[in-house]
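Record minuted for completeness.

…
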Amino acid sequence: MSSHSHDEVSSKNGNGTLPAGGVAKPSGPKPLVVQSDGTLLLEVQSEVAEHRASAARLRHQLSAFAHLEKSPEYFHEYRITPISLWNAAQAGWTEAKILNLLAENARYPVPKQLIEKVREALGKFGRVELTRVGADLILGPSQPGDDLLDTLCTRRTLEPYLKDRLLDGTFRINPDHRGMLKVAFIKVGYPLVDHAGFEEGADLTIDLEGCDLRLYQTEAVDAFFADQGGGGGSGVVVLPCGAGKTVVGIGLLSRLNTQALILAPNITAVRQWKKEILAKTKLPPSAVGEYSGQEKTIAPITIATYQIMSHRKSKTDDFTHLDLFAEHDWGLIIYDEVHLLPAPVFRFTAGIQARRRLGLTATLVREDGREDEVFTLIGPRIYDLPWRDLEREGFIAKVRCVEVRIDLPRDRREDYAAADRRHRFRISSENPYKLDQLISLLKRHDGDRVLIIGQYLSQLREVTLATGAPLITGHTPQEERDVLYGQFRRGEIPVLIVSKVGNFAVDLPDASVAIQISGTFGSRQEEAQRLGRVLRPKSDGREATFYSLVTRDTRDQDFAQKRQRFLMEQGYQYEVEECPQGVPS
């Protein structure tokens, strides 16, 4: 059954008819409150054991078609959106399955407005499909007699791709336009289903060696091959930092046995991928190449940085390394930290829709709102697990999150009041009292391995002068970075200071304390990545601590709350330490 058709919702009231809202109120209290705007409130703490068990089961089911927004102690808040419903449809969820689940668990009748919202979104999914007929790509309706294409073909954004109309009313599509056509359709609210298939790519035998995938990693690899609603061959796996997303990628490579291009956020990540692939497979070093600003080796498995793929000499020149995408017979392209995809790589990806694609990320949050392009160009979210579930199983470390609030010095308050909004943020972020508090925290955690992370280089240099700890920035040569990371891992240096380069792919398993002295405005993804620096399980089982130093009652505090939102959605709670008048606690 196509996902846009709908069945009668099964729940009825006592006289066997549906109530005005369309879905019956179940007997007795249930854990779910469903609201007309798409908000779902799930009670997770209840005195009734049956309700607690039901809520635990529902958490996983709801995540298939609703985004988790907040997860404080008693109620978790989800939101149903078109993207979340299209993700569900791609995974095989039907309208009836979604509405029945809501009806069976809702404390009150499911509002009619929400039922219509679900029906409308699912009714738009997959009405148009791409198929392959011989050598041609054909765009047509998924159900005979549907005249939607007749209505849409004159849209200004679609018309450039719909030039070659066939006698049966379908369209022959230029293969080069496959990706941009998909983007254009999702932008008008009708995501098409792509059944056109994938090129196999050049063969490469990839046998695992000394690599036993955990159950959830195997499930993530299996999910890639699910073929519900046009999936299979593309998708995004969402797992927290430290949970082994790289192993998922390696497991998929060994399943496909094909040559692959891997894109990573920086050279450190590139080299960690290379190290992990060589350690966990039987591939020789010659089979794995680095393609970066420092080295340009193309091998059966090539690992490149986003920066090099986005490089061009000027804004009017072509992208220098675009041919790496198109001129090699890749059977798989892996996008590490897919939420970071720069706009040029989106455009490259639009042109290679015949290649299998895997996105890996700790969070699909994009501050630029381009989640729909990740969905349609990389693929749907095919697998994720709640962070706290992995913590309970011991796969990632337990973390205590602490916000330390500090006053702004009196001599800075006048400058702060006179500044514009942007400069207010910087003034409050660079509060000099933060340095006093930082030194106090270092004394508190004497003997721990502490990572200090910040946004502003001038502030970080002051920290270096005050503490004597080494600093890694974007200007630090890669060889020097590797030496310092190695010394930190071995415990030869107990404290390491990093700029934004420390947000991603720094494998520091024994870092037990992270202190964030300043951040990037309201970036939730950055908060998640910085917490990820201490998420790897500790060899002695210790709990990790993540501190955020925040200037009280300023823009710094406003943006800190926005940054923390994603982690609160995952169930982390921030303790607050008040530090009056800048006096270290």
